[in-house]
Design a protein that fits this description.
CATH architecture of the largest domain: 3-Layer(aba) Sandwich
Low-confidence stretches: 17-46
Helix content: 40-55%
CATH superfamily of the largest domain: Periplasmic binding protein-like II
Number of helices: 14
């Protein structure tokens, strides 16, 4: 049993949250007047932050500096403001001031202090990740600018299909670079459609590929012509033919390129026109892989004659020319506008044309 004093204390504790409202009600019962409520919390009390609380990107950029970001990364890596100050050649108070400025800009704590030093808060972890990305970008900028100081004063962004890369471009690039050692070629291999999209989206200055529906609106110049041949093992039943139509190969398993290949689309169309089933056994991403599969007896395949001469003649493979009209095709050089190309890309385009 609790004493009356203990019970009283217990009830007082229970009634504490209701004291203000009880007093107001008592006053109303005795005087007829209602006591005013306690003053509300100021309007600028803690509230969720909105985007309007933060500065504009440009203003934010002017308030933050790379050296503070670099120092914050160093603090997190050292786990101590004192050690970071020592490694950075600064006094600890100056480092602490930099951190305080960052926290003021972020409007949230960035570091947690503990007995052994500091560690980043969740917001600090976020800043650390972004700071590392920004500083890495600065390093890349330094390296890119350094290329100009070292005499590499130009860049050509070139996208090309597998046929051009396997047959013609290596020699053409070698000749160009020999005469223009200050220009670097960034070559990306892709399907013909992807090449055209890269040029249209300004991800590449120039593109070398076969014509497709994606090249509409692009300027073009002739580059090379190529002839398609059927590749097979030397002892294959079709190897005795001096030439043949592709329809004659439909009885055999096929090694093809991915569906996005212009050649592969033509083969599929040819099979449908003859109401035949294309026996596609394996799809690969490169002409070299196609040669290897055919060498192992897994099927036959279609590729440019020039690619076969470089990739297949050294293997136990045989090539038979195709008589189909589509087997003779052109490779073209594409640009959004040849007149508006950067000088290095314009020089490279002039070196590539015409080739037939």
């Amino acid at each position: 049993m609790l004493s009356s004093q203990a019970c009283g204390k217990k009830w007082l504790k229970f009634l504490e949250p209701f004291q203000n409202e009880m007093a107001r009600a008592l006053c109303l019962g005795v005087t007829g007047y209602l006591l005013p409520k306690s003053p509300a919390a100021p309007s600028n009390a803690r509230r969720p932050l909105t985007m309007s609380d933060f500065t504009s990107p440009r203003s934010f950029l002017r308030q933050i500096d790379l050296s503070s970001l670099d120092l914050f990364v160093l603090i997190c890596e050292c786990g101590s403001i004192a050690r970071a100050a020592e490694q950075g050649g600064m006094v600890a108070s100056a480092v602490s001031k930099r951190v305080a400025e960052l926290e003021s800009l972020a409007r949230t704590p960035l570091l947690l202090r503990h007995a052994r030093g500091v560690r980043p808060t969740p917001a600090g972890e976020l800043l650390l990740a972004h700071a590392r990305t920004i500083l890495l970008g600065v390093e890349h900028l330094r390296d890119d600018l350094g290329e100009y100081a070292r005499g590499i004063r130009g860049l050509v962004r070139l996208s090309a299909n597998a046929s051009a890369v396997e047959q013609f471009l290596p020699e053409d690039i070698a000749i160009f670079v020999k005469h223009h050692p200050d220009i670097r070629i960034d070559l990306r291999q892709a399907t013909s459609r992807s090449v055209a999209r890269a040029v249209r989206d300004h991800m590449a200055d120039l593109g070398v590929c076969s014509p497709s529906d994606e090249v509409e609106g692009l300027e073009s110049m002739p580059y090379r012509r190529e002839r398609m041949v059927l590749i097979m093992p030397s002892d294959h039943a079709l190897a005795r033919h001096p030439e043949l139509a592709y329809e004659e190969a439909l009885d055999y398993a096929q090694i093809g390129l991915r569906d996005s290949s212009i050649v592969q689309e033509m083969l599929n169309r040819q099979a449908r026109a003859g109401r035949r089933m294309l026996r596609q056994r394996i799809e690969v991403d490169s002409l070299s892989a196609m040669c290897r599969m055919i060498e192992c007896g897994l099927g036959v395949g279609v590729m440019p004659e020039g690619a076969y001469q470089r990739l297949g003649e050294a293997r136990a493979l045989h090539a038979v020319p195709l008589t189909d009209a589509w087997a003779e095709r052109s490779l073209k050089l594409y640009a959004s506008s040849f007149a508006d190309l950067p000088a290095p890309a314009r020089h490279f385009a002039q070196a590539l044309m015409p080739k037939y």
